[in-house]
Amino acid sequence: MNSMQCILSGKVQGVFFRSWTQEQAQSLGVKGWVRNLHDGRVEVLAQGDEDALAEFKKRLIQGSSMSEVKDIKCQDMEYDKTYSKFEIR
Predict the structure, then answer these.
(1) What is the tally of helices (H) and strands (E) in the chain?
(2) How far is CA 58 from CA 24, 72, 74, 78, 81, in A?
(3) How confident is residue 79, by pLDDT bands cut at 50, 70 and 90?
(4) C-alpha angle with apex 16: 33 to 35, nearest 5 degrees?
(5) Is 36 known to be catalytic?
(6) DSSP 8-state secondary structure symbol assigned to residue 39
(7) 59 is catalytic
(8) pTM here?
(9) Which of 11, 52, 71, 86 is buried most, with the most CB atoms less than 10 Å from its CB?
């Protein structure tokens, strides 16, 4: 299972970004979680096959209709836990 961590900044809190992210993940079969960070950014941990993660990252860059993603930093990572769904934290 491939894992990817992304940190997004911009107008990504208070605009239903986490709910939108969950919908996108579920539509692609991506598992993991999304959460707000104290500094106004959003963190995403995503697990899935390579193609699904690549498409998920493209969607994150575009963002939801009410959000404005100014920066995204993603890295592939080894993760010792496998998730069975995508959740909002």
Answers:
(1) 2, 5
(2) 11, 10, 11, 21, 24
(3) confident
(4) 25
(5) yes
(6) T
(7) no
(8) 0.95
(9) 86
DSSP 34: E
Collect all residues with Cβ–Cβ distance below 8 Å to 4 and sequence separation of at least 6.
44, 45, 46, 47, 53, 56, 57, 74, 75, 76, 77
Handedness of CA 64, 83, 4, 72 (dihedral sign): positive
User: What CA–CA distance (Å, rounded) separates 56 from 73?
Assistant: 13
Is 42's pLDDT higher than 90?
yes
Point out the catalytic residue in the list 35, 36, 41, 89: 36
**Which CA distances in Å does 9 have to 3, 5, 48, 70, 72?**
20, 14, 23, 6, 7
Instruction: Give CA–CA dist 77/19, Å, rounded.
Output: 24
Give burial (CB, 10 Å; 0-12/13-18/19+) of 70: exposed
Catalytic residue among 18, 35, 41, 59: 18
